[in-house]
Design goal:
By secondary structure, the protein is mainly alpha-helical. 73% of the residues lie in helices and 2% in strands. The chain has a single domain, classed as MetI-like fold (Orthogonal Bundle), CATH 1.10.3720. The protein is globular, with a radius of gyration of 28 Å.
Length: 305
């Protein structure tokens, strides 16, 4: 019996010899990323699909009617209150993005080109505001811009105004100021990383060829750092459209944004389908706006060349 076993061909026991399919790089790569893919699918894609599904339904008090309807989208796109809130949100988001990038670029440029061996220290100092709660930072701006706040007290002390101004708080301007400060660091870091990748010899070559500091910056540094500028603009623009904490605390009735209406539909109004339709509509418009922003930056980059 032993001889028969020794003389027979080797047995192909299942699991001991891998098939060529399992040895392929594509299958091994998919097996490597599959846990992350499943995680993203469960936590990102499925919730979005649930929201989209709800947007085509109707809610009657506590009962949801699963009959397909576009009524929620009609309300979201035609009702003046939601249309105005959406346009206001887009205006605030774009304004915050432009202001944040405009303020962040000089800081990132200074750290990258003039920070020397203290770059890490400068970056560390920039992140200090994030040691405190976002809610606490918003409340601090409420104290600064308030009727008896720091800014009004300072202006009265300088004799610029005779009595406290009510125009500093509870409006869209207060929301823009607060969001610009809150998202400044998120704009500085990607711009800094992009500036760090700029080849300094190209800047020196432009100077040697007769370009002044401004012309060298516009022709070399700015175009090469455009990816960081685009990233910073998108990082700020996309989340600020959906911010509802800041408008609620410092916006007042003139600073309410679309996210506050969505939160109200999912909360007190208890109309999840309409809230879902508002969410999907906002998401689509923001995606189109983000794509348009990228195209505009690329067009400006081509013109600069």
């Amino acid at each position: 019996m032993t001889a028969a076993v020794e003389g027979s061909p080797p047995l192909r026991v299942a699991g001991l010899r891998r098939s060529p399919l399992l040895q392929s790089e594509a299958v091994q790569g998919f097996a490597l990323i599959s846990p992350t893919f499943v995680y993203a699918l469960i936590l990102l894609v499925l919730p979005i699909l649930v929201v989209i599904a709800h947007s085509f339904w109707t809610q009657h008090y506590l009962t949801i009617d699963h009959t397909f309807t576009l009524e929620n989208y009609r309300i979201a796109l035609t009702e003046p209150i939601y249309r105005d809130l959406l346009w206001r949100s887009l205006y605030i988001s774009l304004t915050v993005s432009l202001l944040t990038v405009a303020l962040a670029y000089p800081i990132a440029y200074f750290i990258s080109f003039h920070g020397g061996r203290h770059k890490s220290l400068w970056l560390f100092l920039i992140t200090i505001p994030f040691w405190t709660s976002y809610l606490l930072r918003v409340m601090s701006w409420k104290v600064i811009l308030g009727y008896n706040g720091v800014l009004n007290s300072g202006l009265m002390g300088l004799g610029i105004i005779d009595e406290p101004s009510t125009a500093l708080l509870y409006n869209s301007t207060a929301v823009i100021i607060t969001l610009t400060h809150a998202w400044a660091t998120f704009a500085i870091l990607p711009i800094f990383v992009s500036l760090e990748k700029v080849d300094r010899t190209l800047v020196e070559a432009a100077t040697d060829l007769g370009d002044g500091p401004l012309r060298s910056f516009l022709r070399v540094t700015l175009p090469l750092s455009a990816p960081g500028v685009i990233s910073a603009a998108l990082i700020v623009m996309i989340p600020t459209v959906g911010d509802y904490v800041t408008p609620k605390l410092v916006g007042g009735k003139d600073g309410v944004m679309i996210a506050n209406a969505i939160q109200a539909q999912f909360g007190k109004a208890s109309n999840w389908p309409l809230g879902a339709a508002l969410s999907v509509t906002t998401m689509i418009i923001v995606s189109l706006m983000a794509g348009a922003t990228v195209l505009v930056f690329r067009a400006l980059q081509r013109l600069a060349r």
